[in-house]
Amino acid sequence: xxxxxxxxxxxxxxxxxxxxxAAAFERLYAATxxxxxGVVLRIVRRHDLAAxxxxxxxxxxxxxxxxxNPGLASPLAWMVALARRLAIDAARLAAxxxxxxxxxxxxxxxxxxxRHQLSDSLKRLLTCIGRLEPDRQRMMLLAxxxxxxxxxxxxxxxMPVNLLxxxxxxxxxxxxxxxxx
Amino acid sequence: MPEAINGGAGSTDTFAAExxxxxxxxDERRAANQLLAxxxxxxxxxxxxxxxxxxxxxxxxxxxxASDIWQRIQARMPExxxxxxxxxxxxxxxxxxxxxxxxxxxxxxPETHAELHSEWQTETALEPxxxxxxxxxxxSPPELQTDxxxxxxRxxxxxxxxxxxxxTFESLIAALKKPAHKEEAGAESEQPIALPxxxxxxxEQLIPPEEPTAATLPAAAPAPVPxxxxxxxxxxxxxxxxxxxxxxxxxTPPFVAPAPIDEIEKGAEPxxxxxxxxxxxxxxxxxxxxxxxxxxxxxxxxxVAAWRFIPDRIPPALQLVELMRLAGIPVxxxxxxxxxxxxxxxxxx
Lengths: 181, 349
Fold this sequence. Notes:
Strand content of chain A: under 5%
Distance between the termini of chain A: 35 Å
Distance between the termini of chain B: 123 Å
Number of helices of chain A: 8
Strand content of chain B: under 5%
Order of helices and strands of chain B: HHHHHHHHHHHHHHH
Number of strands of chain B: 0
Oligomer: heterodimer
Helix content of chain B: 40-55%
Radius of gyration of chain A: 18 Å
Number of helices of chain B: 15
Radius of gyration of chain B: 33 Å
Shape of chain A: globular
Structural class of chain B: mainly alpha
């Protein structure tokens, strides 16, 4: 559903929400919740946690939609970034407190995207990530989609933590350089 | 300070990048969150990285959340909003259509959703309920779908995308798939993340960009596709992948619905994006033009009707003859009485 709403619509809805329009907020939720839930669920990997994060994320959006600057980011990217921060914090918190088994099957990677949905900036980013060595490509995407900590990543990728640290920093610098070209 | 910061030159940036990427552990994140609140420079770096990596979310397939989440959000909306409402003195909304105070409703989400749709429809006085998707797609004007807000974001110049072989994306995503070890279908029916690992052959069939919807796509690696398919004509590129439950005329409501516009015009602070305001202004101009044209048309029609039915009562300045003379069309001074028929005709009778 989220893919069906254009950024302009979501920007409109956010502007209305900033004015306290509750109906617009409901529309905004309907238009974006599936995308945000998909992102959050990949990170926290439990439905109950994901629901908590969603609640918190949308309440922040409700309270702070006036802070969104359409000149800087696409509206959905702004909402996703907000939800990701909360989701990663929640995931770390949950990992620290209990050893509850993961309810959700971990997934390794993102889904395929119809070509026409790849935005220019995404193509550019993927091009830059694609210039990394294959192992590092995988590391970067795993890190983003699963938001695994370095320890978790080193287990998953079977790579010593110090090597992983170096690889991670290198990769980030390379991607940054590439994007700046 | 967490050790990630002690890494040498440029490591604050790496710290921000790792914060966004999600690789910091619990302690480091706590430190980062504090830094975020206190250090504007760090916050800027974080936002920059969020912008850089932000579009990756496009590749996450949507998952429908449980419907009670919305009710939980709705129940807490008033308390959360209180603080922000104090800050901006807002004129009391008098419109009856929109409930100013969000009341927690016990209905399940699909119903409120449908209600919302019908509300939009009555407001815009348009087509009835049944999914008019076929008519909707052509209606959506291309300029609404292009994203003007994205432009300023291009602060980093374009790397020559063509220099990288086309299949890097495929290999990239395929690389993620490699250890598809635990891909068994889950017991949970709505378990969305365990995705079918489609063989490459199937994946190839899925690739034609028009067909797949984001919801039905398995997590298949995109198969090699010739480059030209990327540069699709705009109608295709903007085709919404899932539109079955969309509001019928999704792009129009904000421009037609009176309530948001009124409110926005009243509002003191300029939250609205530039493009939206521009669209509003041009809409107003078109409306005025349409009204003027309509008035002119009505006046002309009235005049013509008067000539036809009450020619005697028209003031002399508006007489047809007068006007024709004004326009330079030669008119015989008065209608001469019918000439007597020529002699030949009388001859025969």
